[in-house]
Design goal:
This protein is α/β, with parallel strands linked by helices. 32% of the residues lie in helices and 16% in strands. The relative contact order is 0.13.
Length: 552
């Protein structure tokens, strides 16, 4: 590929940011292709988001057997997951095992942050600047920094006044013992809050939960994996993986074909009860085909879950505050263990920030419009600046387009969620407007890396830089918007649309047409010679059109 002798600075074929699931597989793929590779990771070791998110109760909400790599049969057979939903420590151990087994650590610089990435058009190279001041150049730049790796700003009034213990779930650095016997506040009830709240309640003198938006929290139904189950999985891994690749969500989720009102009230209730016991992403929200498209159908599932909350939570006022009032599934569903039951504990209270917003803090209390709450420690479970945050932190820029955040000033615009116009030889692994937002992201990551590697191989044979056309990018944006507009996602504010970050343009950050259909579209685009992609200034066609209507 590149000629290192052409520059005094070190030059590699592939530069990559991040050493989580994306970066590790990118390093593996580059080695397989014989490409030189330089990876950069802010953390001291591999793991990505699973290195940082060590808060109590942290675990994946996709079942372990699916949330793992499929590129090596030997790896699948030698690694045994202990639980249905793996805890953070086990996922991190798995990624360390992968790094060791395939010799991937040697390709990364740890404790190293990329502060800028600049396209050099005369050299046809990317140059990354590191926090040490050093630079490194490469032919291709891959962003493998993940969609949920940049914590959002702590937009809590008066936080700087608080003199007690403060910790964020996204950068946890305590043990539960540090919270024992204390008056603790948890601000935020998304996935991180839902997972840590029950465990903090067990050790705190008193726990006050400050809730911005009530979420649907399904019972995780986590359990140890029996030897028989493990043996059955390992003997059928090939079929399981293939089903995941062609499914809507990257798990074996055979879509329901009947609608909520196709059955009687009694039958619908029976099926919801069965799905509730099964739980996971194949639970209540997946029981009928129209739950994400028909508000009335959705309300039957939403009300079923509200009934469950009222049954579990003893105090009617608390239960009412915990009842979500948006369509079920239109925001990221949460999975917890004893979450609603925790609010029956005498040492736990709930404050709705919808009813009494925080106005300020003192050295030892949180002050709302209605009251003051004495606390010794605050846990911030405020979520992430999803998808765009990690990309903007890289300060990616080209002379033609400027900075990425400027190019996307009015909203995200990509080609397949993988590339963006104006940025040659730049690829996003599981980027915005890809299926990563609403899928088993490991399946999406592997498909993206494989597709990118095939495109790079094709481009190297043709010669020239790789860049999508603005017209093809417009086509993909139209496809993603048309797809999401058929669903209730389009009518719900959430971090899926960037509404959790002040000033962030309201763009839906994913493709919701399904992992399988996305894969088929990408495969067809490759077969056609990559329409919508200029290679060395040439393209077989400037547009991809409504390829989603051509591909079943």
């Amino acid at each position: 590929m590149t000629d290192p002798a052409s520059s005094t600075a070190p030059v590699v074929d592939v530069l990559c940011v991040g050493a989580g699931f994306s970066g590790l597989y990118a390093a593996y793929k580059a080695a397989e292709q014989g490409w030189s590779f330089a990876g950069f990771e802010t953390a001291p070791d591999v793991g990505g988001t699973w290195y940082w998110n060590t808060y109590p109760g942290a675990r994946c909400d996709v079942e372990s057997i699916y949330y793992s790599y499929s590129f090596s049969e030997e790896l699948q057979q030698e690694w045994t997951w202990s639980e249905r939903f793996a805890p953070q420590a086990e996922i991190l151990s798995y990624l360390n095992h992968v790094a060791d087994r395939f010799g991937l650590r040697q390709h990364f610089r740890f404790n190293t942050r990329v502060t800028a990435a600049t396209w050099l058009p005369d050299e046809h190279l990317w140059e990354v600047t590191l926090d040490s001041g050093a630079t490194c150049r490469g032919r291709y730049l891959l962003a493998g920094s993940g969609g949920l790796s940049t914590p959002k700003d702590f937009d809590v009034p008066g936080l700087e006044n608080f003199a007690g213990l403060t910790v964020s779930t996204s950068r946890w650095n305590l043990s539960l013992d540090d919270l024992a016997g204390k008056r603790v506040a948890v601000i935020g009830t998304g996935s991180s809050g839902v997972q840590c709240i029950p465990l903090i309640a067990e050790v705190a003198d008193h726990l006050t939960v400050f809730q911005r938006t009530a979420n649907y929290v399904f019972p995780a139904r986590n359990a140890r994996m029996s030897a028989d189950v493990v043996d059955e999985i390992k003997s059928n891994y090939a079929a399981i993986r293939e089903e995941c690749r062609h499914s809507p969500g990257g798990i074996p989720d055979r879509p329901a074909t009947d609608k909520a009102f196709d059955v009687s009230d009694e039958e619908r209730r029976r099926r919801y009860e069965r799905a509730y016991e099964r739980s996971g992403f194949l639970g209540v929200g997946a029981e009928f085909s129209d739950l994400l498209t028909d508000p009335k159908a959705n309300e039957t599932a939403a009300e079923f879950m509200r009934e469950k909350i009222r049954q579990i939570v003893d105090d009617p006022q608390t239960a009412a505050l915990l009842e979500p009032r948006f369509p079920l599934g239109a925001k990221r569903s949460c999975f917890g263990t004893d979450y609603y039951e925790t609010f029956n504990r005498p040492n736990v209270s709930l404050v709705s920030l919808r009813d009494e917003p925080i106005t300020t803090m003192t050295s030892d209390s949180i002050v709302t419009e209605r009251d003051s709450y004495a606390v010794d420690a605050i846990v911030l479970a405020l979520g992430f600046d999803a998808f765009t945050g990690p990309l903007y932190a890289l300060n990616v820029s080209t002379p033609e387009a400027g900075r990425l955040q400027d190019a996307w000033r009015d909203g995200v615009r990509t080609y397949l969620g993988v590339m963006t116009a104006g940025f040659p030889n730049f690829f996003m692994i599981g980027g915005p407007q890809s299926p990563a937002l609403v899928s088993n992201v490991v399946v999406t990551i592997q498909q993206a890396v494989d597709w990118i590697a095939d495109l790079i191989t094709h481009a190297e044979a043709k010669g020239g830089d790789v860049i999508p056309t603005a017209e093809a990018q417009d086509d993909w944006v139209s496809i993603t918007e048309a797809t999401v507009n058929q669903t209730l996602y389009a009518k719900t504010d959430s971090w899926y649309r960037g509404s959790n970050v002040t000033g962030k343009p309201a763009t839906f950050l994913g493709y919701v047409g399904g992992v399988g259909k996305y894969r088929r579209m990408c495969t067809e685009i490759a077969k056609r010679g990559y329409p919508g992609v200029r290679i060395g200034g040439q393209t077989v066609a400037p547009r991809i059109g409504r390829i989603d209507e051509e591909i079943a």
